[in-house]
């Protein structure tokens, strides 16, 4: 039998490769050759691992979906956080494909014997064993059929490809780490015996910020599990379309069930969302950083806290402020992060920079993003894939690679793993080191909690003035003749919101 050839042009093939990191495609099934039926599809594609389904219609659209789950006629839904749909714009197939992430991961694909590729019943290929698709968006994926396929549901071709990682492991890890049980004990001891350099502060406060479902609450639960000696679930965590966390919560960690509290508090927030008026407000993040928001404050996405909001903390001290911020980013969703969500993260970064709060990134779900890491978490720093993901995060958010830490949270395990623990504990150590940087940068007056409101405003003004001056010099090559400050009306509006 002659070799079955792909319908993709060379350019279209390259565009679809851009949806992934270093993969190759192997054609498994071509409907015009193997037959437009669910049985033929399953005979060619079951138990093949990750697959990419591509549909071609008579209006010239190319569209489809990806799942990392194997089809196996299991008889129901399969969960897949990394699943997505895509389409190439009909009017311009030279532009990058549009990705549509799964919104209900537990229903990512519907794997039954009498259906072809079925993405959560939102998009079914080989509908009724024919050259057609069925479209019903709104459950597991959100899209407009007109943009997606031009409302043309007749297929002129359907292809399914196996997606294979074109990866191997580096001979030497690109970041040094010790994978020994003794190292875990050493890290735990370093954390338990840590003392902030400011006498008025007994616990470092670390704020966790990130999109919904990235793993903020799961990170606390995972770290808490390490020190309890078993998997715990104190913070509410899970998968949902909107944030599971609705309140600002501060979590202390104990060294064992009856042990003393550790010198670190993890502060959890409502998740960031793409649309305005949803998720935690950018302004509320700044207010948390300055100690204005109390524990268990109920977030209102449409109205950030202000000085007259009931419960607003008006007397702030250094111990109440945030000493380090950890952005929690899902390694599986970096490429499909909406631009509006990325803009929110960058806006938060800018405000935290002005406040002088050190920041790092926790790159979560590295085991789900890379099969080599899933096979053995000790491959995390030998994986070229993980290295590139970290570099991509650094470039997109302007964060040095040294400030990005990959981790795996406990989400489905019942028992602890020393290697997973070492990654989690290493992240905590970095947070404590960054908090030390924060304390090193504050003045004697701040250490003693003297007039912190006016000191904070002065610090913000000084940093903003320095930023404006540096920008002027960069653009013109000249030093401004007059001193630049933020005391014009536009700049003052933010300072007042932040300092209250």
Summary of the model, kept short:
The chain is 32% helix and 19% strand. The protein has 15 helices and 18 strands. Helix 5 packs parallel to helix 12 (418-440), helix 6 (216-228) packs across helix 12 (418-440) and helix 7 (282-289) packs parallel to helix 8 (339-355).
Describe the overall structure.
With 500 residues, this protein is α+β, with helices and mostly antiparallel strands. The chain has helices spanning 10-17, 31-34, 38-45, 145-149, 181-192, 216-228, 282-289, 339-355, 366-369, 371-375, 384-397, 418-440, 444-447, 452-476, 489-499, and strands spanning 23-30, 51-57, 62-67, 76-78, 84-88, 98-101, 109-111, 118-119, 123-125, 133-135, 155-165, 204-209, 247-254, 261-268, 297-298, 324-330, 359-364, 404-406. The termini are far apart. The model is unreliable at 239-243, 450-456 and 479-500 (pLDDT under 50).
């Amino acid at each position: 039998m002659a070799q079955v050839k792909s319908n993709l042009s060379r350019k279209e093939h390259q565009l679809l490769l851009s949806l992934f990191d270093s993969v190759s495609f192997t054609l498994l099934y071509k409907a015009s050759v193997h037959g437009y039926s669910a049985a033929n599809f399953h005979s060619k594609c079951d138990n093949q691992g990750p697959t990419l389904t591509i549909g071609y219609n008579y209006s010239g659209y190319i569209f489809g979906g990806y799942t990392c789950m194997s089809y196996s006629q299991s008889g129901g839904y399969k969960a897949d956080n990394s699943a997505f749909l895509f389409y190439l714009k009909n009017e311009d197939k030279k532009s990058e494909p549009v990705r549509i992430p799964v919104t209900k991961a537990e229903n990512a694909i519907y794997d039954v014997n009498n259906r072809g590729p079925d993405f959560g019943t939102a998009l079914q290929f080989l509908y009724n064993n024919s050259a057609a698709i069925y479209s019903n968006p709104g459950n597991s994926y959100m899209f407009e059929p007109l943009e997606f396929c031009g409302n043309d549901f007749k297929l002129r071709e359907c292809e399914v490809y196996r997606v294979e990682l074109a990866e191997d492991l580096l001979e030497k890890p690109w970041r040094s780490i010790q994978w020994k049980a003794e190292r875990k004990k050493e890290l735990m001891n370093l954390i338990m015996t840590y003392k902030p350099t400011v006498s008025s502060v007994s616990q470092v406060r670390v704020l966790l910020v990130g999109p919904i479902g990235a793993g903020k609450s799961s990170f606390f639960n995972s770290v808490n599990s390490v020190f309890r000696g078993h998997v715990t679930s104190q913070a509410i965590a899970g998968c949902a379309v909107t944030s599971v966390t609705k309140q600002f919560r501060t979590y202390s960690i104990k060294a064992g069930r009856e042990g003393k509290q550790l010198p670190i508090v993890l502060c959890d927030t409502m998740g960031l969302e793409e649309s305005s008026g949803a998720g935690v407000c950018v302004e509320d993040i700044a207010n948390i950083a300055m100690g204005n928001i109390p524990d268990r404050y109920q977030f209102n996405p449409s109205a950030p806290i202000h000085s007259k909001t009931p419960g607003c903390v008006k007397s702030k001290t250094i111990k109440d402020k945030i000493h380090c911020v950890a952005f929690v980013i899902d390694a599986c969703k970096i490429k499909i992060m909406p631009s509006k969500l990325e803009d929110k993260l960058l806006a938060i970064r800018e405000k935290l920079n002005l406040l002088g709060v050190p920041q790092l990134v926790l790159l979560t779900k590295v085991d789900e993003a890379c099969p080599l890491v899933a096979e053995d978490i000790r491959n995390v720093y030998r994986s070229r894939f993980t290295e590139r993901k970290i570099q991509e995060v650094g470039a997109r958010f302007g964060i040095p690679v040294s400030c990005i830490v990959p981790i795996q949270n406990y989400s489905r395990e019942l028992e602890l793993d020393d290697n997973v623990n070492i990654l989690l504990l290493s992240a905590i150590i970095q947070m404590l080191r960054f908090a030390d940087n924060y304390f090193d940068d504050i003045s004697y007056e701040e250490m003693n909690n003297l007039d912190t409101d006016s000191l904070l405003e002065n610090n913000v003004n000084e940093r903003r003035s320095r930023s404006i001056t540096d920008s002027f010099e960069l653009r013109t090559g000249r030093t401004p003749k007059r001193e630049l400050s933020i005391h014009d009306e536009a700049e003052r509006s933010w300072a007042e919101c932040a300092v209250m």
